[in-house]
Design goal:
This protein is of the alpha/beta class. The protein folds into 2 domains: 101 residues, Elongation Factor Tu (Ef-tu), domain 3; 125 residues, Nucleotide-binding domain of ferredoxin-NADP reductase (FNR) module (Rossmann fold), CATH 3.40.50.80. The protein contains 5 helices and 12 strands. The protein has a 6-stranded antiparallel β-sheet with strand order 4-3-6-1-2-5. β1 and β2 form a beta hairpin. α4 packs parallel to α5. The longest helix is centred in the middle third of the chain and has 13 residues. The two termini are 28 Å apart. The relative contact order is 0.14.
Length: 250
């Protein structure tokens, strides 16, 4: 089976499902695990999103954080203080029904450009790690995929809620590298931040690569981070046609 044939090209549709797990990963962010009714599978490409809805609340888009080969769907939800996100992080419990519509989004993993599979660079700011986690897991599941690099930026260490998980992946997969970057220079040394880079996320990437030519680059996070990082990538020979982000390449 070729890489291209693994890409989902169908239309979005509605599914009903149930919450099977909730896990608070930070004071305002919850990991949600969902199973579609009758053990159906949602066909999607890594990096896509769906609209979630529960009774009494307007639907909202959430990135799928699990890879397409996984049987359950994972979402990372940060509370906005109101509406559906607040309900999910504060009140939703296992067994609750949930409606899904998708998949949606074109900033998804493209395993091959038709000739070769390119090394992958993932750049995530904050909760932007959710769709990139899906892409990274899909890449690592493909044993023939070349090296995968993740740079994940946050203000403080406590916001890197998957830090241990990604460090574990570096031990399991030699072709995977993970660089966490903290932008707040007031981090408390007593919290063990010595193993973290500091500064701006884009600058860390630019410092580590002489050239980004030949790489596929996926970005997710605040628009300001993406806007500031893209010029740095282009300066390092990144090819515009291989930079994918909902905020940059629509």
């Amino acid at each position: 089976m070729t890489n291209e044939s693994r890409q989902y090209t169908g239309k979005s549709r509605q599914y009903t499902g149930r919450v099977v797990g909730v896990h608070d990963v930070s004071p305002d962010t919850r990991k949600l695990t969902v199973e579609i009714d009758n053990k159906q599978r949602l066909p999607f490409n890594a990096g896509q999103y769906v609209h979630l809805a529960v009774e009494g609340f307007e639907h909202r888009p959430f990135s799928i954080a699990s890879a397409p080969h996984e049987p359950l769907l994972e979402f990372h939800v940060k509370s906005s203080g109101r509406g559906l996100s607040a309900h999910i992080t504060e009140a939703l419990q296992p067994g609750s029904p949930i409606l899904l519509e998708g998949p949606l989004g074109i900033s998804h993993w493209r395993p091959s450009d038709g000739t070769i599979t390119r090394p992958l660079l993932a750049i995530a700011g904050g909760l932007g790690i959710a769709p990139l986690k899906s892409i990274i897991e899909a890449c690592l599941h493909d044993r023939s995929h070349p090296p995968v690099h993740l740079y994940w930026g946050a203000r403080q260490r406590s916001q890197l809620y998957l830090d241990d998980y990604f460090r574990g992946l570096t031990r399991k997969y030699p072709r995977f590298s993970y660089i966490p970057v903290l932008s707040d220079d007031k981090n408390d040394p007593s919290q063990g931040t010595d193993s973290y880079r500091t500064g701006l996320l884009g600058h860390a990437v630019a410092e580590d690569f002489e050239t980004l030519s030949g790489m596929s680059i996926y970005m997710a996070g605040p628009a300001a981070m993406i806007d500031a990082t893209v010029p740095l990538l282009l300066h390092k020979d990144a090819e515009e046609d291989y930079i994918f982000s909902d905020g940059f390449k629509l």
